[in-house]
Amino acid sequence: MYLNSIIADPERLDRLVEIAQSSLLPMLEGAILYTIPLTLITFVLGLILAVLTALARISKIRILQIIARIYVSAIRGTPLLVQLFIIFYGLPTIGLTIDPFPSAIIGFSLNIGAYASEVIRAAILSIPKGQWEAGYSIGMSYTQAMRRIILPQASRVSVPPLSNTFISLIKDTSLASLILVTEMFRRAQEIAATNYEFLLLYSEAAILYWIICFILSIGQGRLEARLDRYTEK
């Protein structure tokens, strides 16, 4: 019915085409200036936090284990949107006001850190104990063995799930629109509010997200194929 009404009305069809064309640049601008930088920054920070959390989880220091467990449990047990709202809307009530973009960075980094830490921890634990023993046999300390033997192997094991996390993060950044970050989906919302063509503009935004994720998935496949050359069959 919707498509038939558009086809039967050439003027409306021309208007929709014009809106789609004119909205493409602002949405791409939002992707380039906010969506992609937000993804890259939060993934890097989240990955650093994830490594530290994973090491704390497998540490023999009890207090570090407890802190890491509480952090992971709290982040994984609450919705990402709620976390963003607490940071951006909640903290100002106690006098701590953070701008939209930094709020998004904090929220997404904490979220990625918790989820990715479990991936990294599992990868570290998957390394055979013989690798540890080999490091100790040549005089390495725990830290040296971890840095030179275990983490390089664990990183290779972690690539596929972490790549999926990165691609998912691209889509999750759309939630930043709800804390006033003018990323790609926020641009689509703002344009739709002026012409009420919600279906068109949200579909256009969805296609752009899909294109970005599709390109990244191709890169992921090539990276995994490259790393697979160094994996014993």
TrEMBL record:
Per its UniProt record, what NCBIfam families does this chain match?
Answer: HEQRo_perm_3TM
Q: How does it sit in the membrane?
A: Multi-pass membrane protein
The family database entries (PANTHER family) matched by this protein are listed as:
L-CYSTINE TRANSPORT SYSTEM PERMEASE PROTEIN TCYL, MEMBRANE COMPONENT OF AMINO ACID ABC TRANSPORTER
Descriptive protein name: Amino acid ABC transporter permease
Mind telling me which Pfam families this protein's record contains?
A: BPD_transp_1 (PF00528)
The record ties this protein, via Gene3D superfamilies, to: MetI-like
Its principal location? membrane
Q: Which residues form a coiled coil?
A: none
Give the organism, scientific name.
Answer: Robertmurraya kyonggiensis
